[in-house]
Specification:
This protein is of the alpha/beta class. Helix content is 41%, strand content 16%. Bound molecules: phosphoenolpyruvate.
Length: 247
């Protein structure tokens, strides 16, 4: 099974989202792909309604660290789950940068998602400068270890890790298949060191960053990669379906 997460980010009006989802619901059919569309909060209920009869899962793009109450403007895990989301992206690099989400905050969000029975897509990845300075391994280890602090091994069954080098997001540049393979191996080693070899082997690891109709050919068969997180190339249903049908 390949896992694919479409990250709609902050795109599409209500009507545009409605026709996109209706198109995806009728046209997506690939029993080798487990597909989640991670949508803005305001479209979650619409997503549940329009995707109910399809195999596509509804996902959120973030959630609050808090459970309830004094957090004006925030959305809790309970709200997401009860509106129809099954999955949620946590720790996307755009949020880490813009909203200063750090390891501690991401750890709290993961715990809240687990409490509310949401599966998690944890995004990790180094910046261009960290990559140039040879800090990739260090950054990845720190991001995983701070995110998973205090978790029980069985909770990892509800988590997927998406390796998204920041320099590859929206740039049209992707690491080579060899590099992706090496990072995925490192991710599994970190999980093995901190939990168990079985946990390292079982962890589902995705790649994200400029996955599109052109790049997918070179990266779709990288050993150890269980799927993809797709941003820009998911926005056009036709283009996205071509990628999905090709997996
Ligand atoms: C992303 O932002 O998570 C992403 C994968 O974007 P893109 O596919 O546009 O690089």
């Amino acid at each position: 099974m390949k896992y694919v997460v479409a990250n709609i980010k902050m795109n599409k009006s209500y009507d545009e989202m409605k026709s996109y989802l209706m198109g995806m619901a009728t046209r997506f059919s690939n029993d080798k792909v487990d597909l989640t569309i991670a949508m803005p909060y305001t479209y979650i209920s619409l997503g549940k309604f329009l995707l109910e009869e399809s195999a596509i899962r509804v996902g959120g793009q973030n959630l609050s660290e808090d459970e309830e109450g004094k957090s004006t403007g925030e959305i809790s895990g309970r709200m997401l789950r009860s509106s129809g989301a099954e999955n949620v992206i946590i720790g996307h690099s755009e949020r880490r940068k813009r909203f200063k989400e750090d390891g501690k905050s991401i750890n709290l969000k993961i715990k809240s998602a687990l409490k509310n029975r949401l599966n998690i897509i944890l995004c990790i990845g180094e910046s261009a400068s960290e990559n140039k300075l040879g800090k990739r391994s260090e950054v990845i280890r720190e991001q995983i270890e701070s995110a998973f602090k205090g978790l029980y091994e069985n909770e990892l069954d509800n988590i997927l890790i998406a390796y998204e080098p920041i320099w590859a997001i929206g740039t049209g540049v992707t690491p080579s298949a060899k590099e992706i393979g090496a990072v995925v191996k490192e991710i599994r080693k970190i999980i093995s060191d901190d939990f168990s070899t079985t946990a390292g082997e079982k962890m589902r690891v995705l790649y994200g960053g400029s996955v599109n109709g052109k790049s997918i050919g070179q990266i779709k068969n990288v050993k150890g990669v269980d799927g993809f997180l797709v941003g820009g190339a998911c926005l056009d249903g036709g283009e996205f379906l071509q990628i999905l049908n090709n997996l």
